[in-house]
């Protein structure tokens, strides 16, 4: 994500927009010349020429407004097209890099960070063209009037270009602080609002408000700090520009007095000051903001970079999963110690234990989502040789089933149309057929995550069917039937456990009949 990529998004539109930003100051300077001529014609009392030149000035103003509106639209289109491409690359990288990314981190990168780069970098690319063009056209105009004015303007521009150095580093730090503070704010919202119902139940609103207010204040302070540096730069620019404008007016007056420029030029020297101030402000502020965004630009560019695609390898699933001296320590000093376990291919294991014994955590250790503090998880093939399997191919059904705002069938097949023919069989195996019949659209019923048009038990049946239809050799199920009645659970377990799949099932309150369906039970105890 850089200037080259910005241009390549749509080269023709970029250069046409750039030309538009050159035309706008050209029209403004041309209109200034027309006003100067109006003054000279008015002094000569030639009313016919005066009316004609007035009409010309009006037409130039209309064209100026039209070009400005068109350029603004094309500029936004160019920026948004780049954003679409970058978001697509970022999402693909999050998908393929195999790393764990928090929702808040991804949201911040895809929204706030891109918006800051839009405002502080890419919009300023065009504004720099406008600022430089304005200064150039003013210089050309003044060259035609007087070399003394030219020298004065060159000196003013040179000094003005040094101004961004005053706030470049503080502004860059302020921009980075906003990005970090915004991510922390999103993290806080995600951590606390996900448990809003519990906070409401126990009347813990005061704590929620306090935490949100604290992180919100940090984000507010970061924005205020950035604004302060921007305003400081603007203030310095304003003072310097005003001083330059006054000096220019005095110099122009001296030149009129010495008959080196026409009196009409004196009357429009204020316009020169306005355009010069605007050009210098745009140039210096734009350069300062762009330089201050370099680090964020590099970070976003890294997030959007391509991941080298590796040749697909045959997926080797473990025949045996073993744990050896497995320990997981927590920051608060607590730890989970596991007995040495061995899970063989095809076994149906019931994993039990009191709350806090680490049953769900064991699954995450097996899946590689957590790294043990000590010990290890070992995966072996049929020959007893250690392997590094693709852990993403292990079926995992978490306590809170994950479904998407798509059809029930798509949620089961995970958008693989080749599996559509197997769906009816697996929904029957997980006792989901009667539920499907209740939906107006059947399998095509779209899940509404906001209005929750499916029950907790139906969500669990969907993910159970998902694991079945994808023929996972190993399935780890965490409370996979907790929201389903015992009769239906018994039927589902019988269908599920008669397959050759290795199944480890976490459950509470199973009756004796359900226990007997499993080959053995592993009971965890907290040491």
> Would you tell me the overall average pLDDT?
82
How many structural domains in the coordinates? 2
Number of helices: 18
Indicate the CATH topology of the largest domain: ABC transporter transmembrane region fold
CATH class of the largest domain: Mainly Alpha
Termini Cα gap: 52 Å
What structural class is derived from the secondary structure elements? alpha/beta
What proportion of the residues is helical, as a percent range?
55-70%
For the secondary structure, the number of strands is 9
The largest sheet, given as strand count, sense and whether it forms a barrel, is: 5 strands, parallel
What radius of gyration results from the CA coordinates?
34 Å
Order of helices and strands: HHHHHHHHHHHEEEEHEEHHHHEHEHE
Name the overall outline: elongated
CATH superfamily of the largest domain: ABC transporter type 1, transmembrane domain
**Parts with pLDDT < 50 across at least 5 consecutive residues:** none
Task: Provide a concise account of the structure shown.
The protein is of the alpha/beta class.
Descriptive notes:
The protein is of the alpha/beta class. It has two domains: 3-303, ABC transporter type 1, transmembrane domain (ABC transporter transmembrane region fold, Up-down Bundle); 320-524, Rossmann fold, CATH 3.40.50.300. It has 18 helices and nine strands. The strands form two sheets. The chain has a five-stranded parallel sheet with strand order 6-7-8-4-9, with helices on both faces. Strands 1, 2, 3 and 5 form a four-stranded antiparallel sheet that branches. The longest helix has 53 residues, at 205-257. It starts with a helix and ends with a strand. It is a multi-pass membrane protein. One of its GO terms (cellular component) is plasma membrane. It is found in: Cell membrane. InterPro entries: AAA+_ATPase (IPR003593), ABC1_TM_dom (IPR011527), ABC1_TM_sf (IPR036640), ABC_transporter-like_ATP-bd (IPR003439), P-loop_NTPase (IPR027417), Sigma_54_int_dom_ATP-bd_1 (IPR025662), Type_1_exporter (IPR039421).
